[in-house]
What does this fold into?
Amino acid sequence: MAVTDLIYFDNNATTRPLPEVVDAMGDIQREAYANPSSVHRFGQAARHRVESARQEVAELIGASPKEIIFTSGGTESINLAVRGTLNHRPNRRHLLTTTVEHSAVHSLMEQLAVEGWWLDRVGVDRQGRLDVQQWADKLSDETALASIIHANNETGVLFDVAEIAGLTARRGVPLHVDAVQSAGKVPIDVSAWPVQLLSLSGHKFHGPKGCGALFVRRRTRMEPIIRGGAQERRLRGGTENVAGIVGMGVAARHAASRVQENQGHIGGLRDALEQGLTARVPFARVNGGEAPRIHNTSNISFENLEAEAILLLLSEAGICASSGAACSSGSLEPSHVLKAMDLPESLAHGAIRFSLSRFNTQEEVDQAVEVIPDLLSRLTSLSRS
Ligand code: PLP
It folds into this structure.
């Protein structure tokens, strides 16, 4: 099946790079491949491209370019944010996060707990909404750092960062926001949020994979986790990924100019997909459907079915989607996010994430709504026989 025939509903995994991004990256590899640290004119031309991209990424989130550190992606940004700040707060041993973080934060925090940090994870209700009172109660003078996801990668549930950041700042605790699934999709303005650190990743908003950024508010004391040269204000050693950075800058510029338009277009498609499927499949349940959600994500449980089997049938029909399930010892375990939402097993095992982008169309949604119920009926009769 040609890639153009696929219905790609897996945009939270990664997005298609914009043609403008691919062109800009190709130009760099062909014609501006110098090292930005070189003093010759060729090197300085590359430096100029990196600094323009920094400006574009900064504008996407209302930051100053000096507050942007380029990294190899969301995961590295998160590791830098968390580990990079902890060394400066040796007398505080408490960390605060939530039960529904992406594995980049989730497993890092688990590792820090093994290393002797005292970790609290605040829970969510059945719709995936954070227990804000518990968050406030858990903050203490011992808390070295708090970290919270903005838009959940599995359910799309949005946390109210403005409120949480206010509470956290009042206790004098620095806050890191994992905005990997929200940056470039919804407006973000770090000048209005009292957060110290915020992670984003180019490939989630039509930029390249392998390039991310960390916003580090002025005067936040940090150390690098990758030591080497003096690049990125000494916070991230290593020759810059110039093509990736430039590609991310182009993607950030396009995302910023289309935020409202995309929200309307993609949100309309997501709602049509959700309504179409829930109307035609009586055993379908939308996870997090009553919580505030980002406009592109729909997580739907098909009761008593297995996500893996559904995904295989969808794939045969040319529809790309995902599940939050992880394969552990040969069986598919529902994700920690759905478990944290206390979903019964019969729903958690059959949860599928559909995540849309500006490249999706009404025709694709119509086709999916047409095809998916029949596939599910086939599976239901198979599992009964
Ligand atoms: N945080 C969230 C919420 C994500 O969805 C992802 C990727 O899926 C990451 C962090 C990690 O980003 P990257 O793939 O750029 O390392």
User: Anything to note?
Assistant: The CA atoms of residues 46 and 145 lie 36 Å apart. The radius of gyration is 21 Å.
